[in-house]
Fold this sequence. Notes:
With 287 residues, the protein is mainly alpha-helical. It has helices spanning 8-11, 78-91, 96-101, 103-106, 118-141, 158-170, 180-195, 197-226, 241-256, 261-282; strands at 49-55, 62-69. It has a single domain (8-45, 118-286), classed as Heme Oxygenase, Chain A (Up-down Bundle), CATH 1.20.910. 52% of the residues lie in helices and 5% in strands. The protein has a two-stranded antiparallel ribbon with strand order 1-2.
Amino acid sequence: MVPCGSLQLAHRLPHEIRHSSKPYPFCHQTTDSIPRLFACSSSSTASTTISTTITLGGGGVRKRIRNRKLNPGEKDGIVEEMRFVAMRLRTTAPSASDVDEGADESAASTDATWFPTVEGFLHYLVDSKLVFHTLERIVEDSTDVAYVYFRRTGLERSGSLAKDLEWFQRQGHAIPQPSSPGISYASHLADLAEKSAPSFLCHFYNIYFAHVNGGCEISKQVCEKLLLERNLEFYNWEGDAHKLLRNVRENLNKLSEHWPRIEKNKCLREAAKSFKLSGQIVRLIIL
């Protein structure tokens, strides 16, 4: 478990959070069997080469053609491919532009400077509600048959967030309007849903994955530091959230078997973007 007061959370995206074997007091989920995020499930990441053999017309000599190499994790489905993308992001050195963009957060790299605020946490909850509501509305209202498999998964969060925000309002806190990170992400999701179901669904999975696997740790640290006396609905699920997430993962892998490679590659690029956009919303906590 990341100790209370740790600064690592302020600089980490949801997919980078380590987990404890102890249940979190602010969450109705235990993590006894949760692996570390993106831990390798295989001892080898070597790519596999696909080869085909064709016979030339007229009884000509057979010619062997070497096709592209498989992406890491490709044999196990699109979700495993996205996991390798996340692993590469963790080990890739930041560019100069990334350093500039993250300059403001660098000051929050010590225990003395990282501290959540109620105002920042409310911005985080409001922007998260906008993103989750956008996901749920799109899959529920769309006529695209691909989205049917992701309706009413049991992972939906917008209703729970609405209850939490109502509680904060009753405590006398002003509820802010959505801010730029949440608005930008919701707009990007709506645009993707019209253009590319595979790309949208990869965001769909990554958002829920990050929340299920990192949400309890965020809740624990924030609630302890802000002395909140509420077990937030945002971090509680009816049933086992990890089983619900596994159902989504299996449906996504099955559906992706019918996607052309070009769509899968777009999906992997969007996975990287998902981690960045989600991280911007998490950082609102320390406003």
